[in-house]
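Quick log. Single chain, no ligands specified.
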Amino acid sequence: MNQADLLALIEGAAAKAGISTTTFGRHAVNDGKLVGRLRDGKTVTLRTVENVRRYIEELDRKQAGASSSSPEAAGERA
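-> predicted structure:
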């Protein structure tokens, strides 16, 4: 995975979760400047990539849990 791919992955996950890329970086790897550094062409370690992927999986699980517990997901009407 190159920087452009990682950046696209982060930006997409942040948008889907409704959070800023700064917040994403802070939560994923305790670095609010992560995305800015990637945009500047800086590299990251494999550990950072793994932590980013883990955080995206966590966000996906939370969103899946939230949508399955909503009345709309259960077919109920308000």
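The chain has four helices and no strands.
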